[in-house]
Prior knowledge:
Residues 1-51, 320-352 are annotated as: Disordered. By secondary structure, the protein is mostly helical. The protein has helices spanning 2-9, 16-19, 49-60, 64-72, 77-87, 103-108, 121-127, 132-137, 142-145, 162-169, 172-189, 206-215, 219-232, 239-253, 260-267, 274-287, 330-368; strands at residues 191-193, 200-202, 310-314, 317-321.
Amino acid sequence: xxxxxxxxxxxxxxxxxxxxxxxxxxxxxxxxxxxxxxxxxxxxxxxxxxxxxxxxxxxxxxxxxxxxxxxxxxxxxxxxxxxxxxxxxxxxxxxxxxxxxxxxxxxxxxxxxxxxxxxxxxxxxxxxxxxxxxxxxxxxxxxxxxxxxxxxxxxxxxxxxxxxxxxxxxxxxxxxxxxxxxxxxxxxxxxxxxxxxxxxxxxxxxxxxxxxxxxxxxxxxxxxxxxxxxxxxxxxxxxxxxxxxxxxxxxxxxxxxxxxxxxxxxxxxxxxxxxxxxxxxxxxxxxxxxxxxxxxxxxxxxxxxxxxxxxxxxxxxxxxxxxxxxxxxxxxxxxxxxxxxxxxxxxxxxxxxxxxxxxxxxxxxxxxxxxxxxxxxxx
Length: 379
């Protein structure tokens, strides 16, 4: 009966908005919910005060085409739906009728090799670190190192099951080897793991590896898979530090400019907690160029027009403009909007500062209270 009810409650999303509940609520009330479960929600499409200010600036400086081009940008429905299913634990997933062989767990216990290469996990952990040519050109190992409940390109790799996930998370040796495999891939990307909380930073080889990562974009698919697998196997908290570092390199430092679209369309949406996604998106919005082309939120909240104002509709977006006649001057009307936009932006920045402060606190605590299974990892 439970399965029937579960199937009845699931609604296949048909739009990007139905896949994304990141901005469903703009409060912290959902931050402490176990697992960060989501519900379907739409996204308001009206323009925010900050967007209205940017629109006024564009018109004043003759950049109307920039606003028109931003309306043509669209998010990928394929990406949104894929990450929606992941965050909701694959609502239509059916466990195999045959008993699971736990091949992913047995591989991590060094009992069976990966197929088709015939390589054991211990060989990868001891001999592959720093072998960037092998890590780059071999395309069969990644599905074994970072298993998911979905089929990858290596059809010899077996999908995870819920029972196997539980068994994996309770097996110390499997988790220890999984973290070692994670550090090998981070080193391949030019990143190092700092502590058991998942905090990361640039590695010594970051310049060469970032240049390679910026040019070898097929590795972005690998990063998405790694992030998903972290969440499946009990390391959900490791996602936020990694995604933030990649966003900072892509948008602020400019070392990974080719990655910014993948980071915004895929990496962020592997995080299951609403508040974490909001914090990352607000951070990204502060640094995205051109700012008027940022299409990932926050939502376009509708405003109630004041008396004497006129509402102009452009496509689906509603731009609220104050009547010039009610203001002492056109500049005064614009200044009112700017003050409102500043208030909104100030409220937005608080959430990311809170998240970042929490990350720093976790880093300090993590270095004092290391868990047993990570003590053997050469950090």
